[in-house]
Amino acid sequence: MLSSIEKSRMMPTKYAYFGIGAKRWINIARSRLNASGKGINILERVLLTQKAGSIFDALGFYGYRNFSLMDLGCGDGSPLYPLLHYLRNELPKSGVRYNPIDISPDMLHAASKNVSEGFSAFGKQNKWDFDKGPFRHLTKKLEKPRFGNLYLFLGSTFGNMPDLHRTLVNIRESMGANDYLLLGVEQIVPGEIGGMLRDYYKIRDVFDLLFTPFQFFGLRHSDGEFRVTFNREKSQVEVHFTPDKELRLQTLSGKATLKKGKPIMLARSVKFTSERLAGLFSEAGFRTEMLTTSRDNNYALVLVQPVTL
How far apart are CA 75 and CA 158, in angstroms? Predict the structure, then answer.
């Protein structure tokens, strides 16, 4: 982590989801379920509720209705609720196994607890860092005969990954030939960029979450300034922290210095178009089975399957 900060001037976002950071992320997810109906999570929840039947009809699992849900970057598990509701109400005889996969033990615990309280969906917690590569050794152990495997990457988490292409390739290489992947991603609407940036400032927990790793070193918010910008060339929101004095970070494994006035990128969140999504999936070895968007075209659900040669 320290070498990444000093060399690339980026804080790997994954380190923010441990300990108190997990609680902060859950607060953000709840904030996005806002009453105005414009939050990222409510857009996704509405789409999943509306399209659950179409999603399961499109899976093509040859008539059987047992499902292993592989929840990648699971968060607190709540994004899956519309799909679990559908299975419970519309396919009551189906078996469901819920398998959360995340780098954070705190997130794995939260997801397992939340899902088990509302649904009879039993599976296994699986700790994995997606930057390490494919995780077929994990997913192969989770497969069951005559269960369809649906991988899920929801909550617009995909856009936060450091290497989008490599992330998709790692996921594809961890899937079976007949498996499916469902992603939820935020799309770019040119006239709404200003409002999108304002939303980051409105949810104070965003800064608290992204600053979590620095807090472990004893830094405070007052040690610098947060700034949110939109990089039009890369179509991504960027969150920076600029120290107002020289700051030294040190652990048993090394040390790093944050220079005064030199910004550190705490996070980036890519916003997509349907055309860019199609290109990413094709290049990573997927074919698109279904793509559906919200009414204002600012959120998309994409169902894809690995291409077999």
Answer: 12
The crossing angle, in degrees rounded to 10, of helices 81-90 and 105-118 is: 30
pLDDT at 193 over 80: yes
State the residue for tokens 């609720």. Answer: 81
Per the structure block, which two tokens stand in for 206?
Answer: 């965003």
Tokens of 54: 């179409």
Helix (H, G, I), strand (E, B) or coil at 78: helix
Does 32-187+272-306 carry CATH code 3.40.50.620?
A: no
Is 50 exceeded by the pLDDT of residue 35?
A: no
Domain boundaries, the chain: 2-14+193-270, 32-187+272-306
Inter-residue contact 229 to 238 (CB < 8 Å): yes
Quote the pTM value. Answer: 0.90
List the one residue out of 72, 86, 76, 70 whose CA is nearest residue 30: 76
SS3 content of the chain, % helix, strand, coil (to 5): 40, 25, 30
Q: What is the token pair recorded at 176?
A: 């079976």
Question: Which two three-digit tokens encode residue 170?
Answer: 């790692």
Q: At what angle do helices 164-172 and 274-283 cross, to 10 degrees?
A: 50
Percentage of the chain with pLDDT > 70? 91
Rg (CA), the chain: 20
DSSP, residue by residue, 86-135: HHHHH-TT--EEEEEEES-HHHHHHHHHHHHHH-------EE--GGG---
The conformation of residue 254, written as its DSSP 8-state character, comes to E
